[in-house]
Input
Amino acid sequence: MDRDERNRVRAERYRDLSEKSAEKARNAYERSTKMSEAIPFGQPVHGAADRRYREKIWNTMGQSVKHTEKSEYWAEKASAVENNTSIYLDDDNAVEKLENKLKELERVQELMKSANKIIRSKKITELEKHEQLVGLGLTESQVRKLFEPNCFGEIGFASCSITNNGANIRRVKQQLEKAKTLKSMENKEYYIGDVKVVENYPENRLQLFFDCKPDQSLRDELKKHGFRWSRFNGCWQSYLNNSAKSFVKNYGERF
Output
């Protein structure tokens, strides 16, 4: 199961939790409403039993509010997972994703430079500039906006936009080279005591497989150094970096 599939499963689980909480909220609201029907509108409180009954109605309505908040929380979690477009080096198709992202960034960079060259040309008319910009694939509204001066008095694409996009291109190129390197490397497996250590390069993870559950102090140390329990892989793992390797090497005597 790759990351995309795991995210899909995670989002479905969050949606299911959201729906269950929403159902509990509806049930609590209906119970509270039905209970309140037993009290005539405007009737004052009569004794301790009546007061407790009204408190029970109030608490039941509070449960409805609480479950509604939970439903919204899980719905937001699901939405965050579904809309996450980040590319991770441990994605099975990280190389393909990064190549596609690089192509798009380079296309946008070329588009912005070409558009600015047309806009600032003194050899063609405004009408010709408009036609050439549309020919680049820009919409009519986008073209009109390019001729509106920004806060710095510039027309066309802002120089900072071109600079920032260029920086993103360089960053993605570096990620792409690292992704290609990681995918081409073979895993390394070795033991420190009874613990199997796996340098999982395709997934960019350093994984520790214990025979039994580590004690609390060791678990705390693992978490402190970036390791997290992976139920899917059945191991403690962190990103594959020098810091994690150094911890395993120096702390291995505790394993």
About this structure: Strands lie at 188-192, 195-200, 205-209, 228-230, 235-239. The first strand starts at residue 188 and ends at 192.
